[in-house]
Amino acid sequence: MTNILKKISGSFFCWKDFGNIPVTILFALCFHSHGNIYSQQLFPSQEVIDKTWESTSRNGDRVFVPHIQTVQFYLSGTPMTYPVMQIHGNSLLELHFDDVDSVQHNYSYSIEHFDALWQTPNPDINSFMDGFAINRIDNYEISGATSIPYRHYVLSIPNRDVVLKRTGNFLVKVFIDSPERPVITRRFSLYDNKIPVDASLRMTHLGSMKNNAHEITIQTDISRIQVGDIFSDLRVFIVPNYIWHQSVTDIKPLFVRGSSLTYEQSMTPGNEFRTLNLKEISENYSDVEQITIINGVQHIKLPVDHPRGTEKPKSRQDMNGRAFVEKFGAWEHNLDADYFYAYFTLKSELPMLDGNVYIYGALSNYSFNPWNLMIYNVDKAMYENRMLLKQGFHDYKYVHVTSHESRIDFERIEGNFAQTSNDYLIFVYNRDRATNLDELVGYTVVTSFP
Question: What is the pTM for the complete model shown?
Answer without folding.
Answer: 0.90
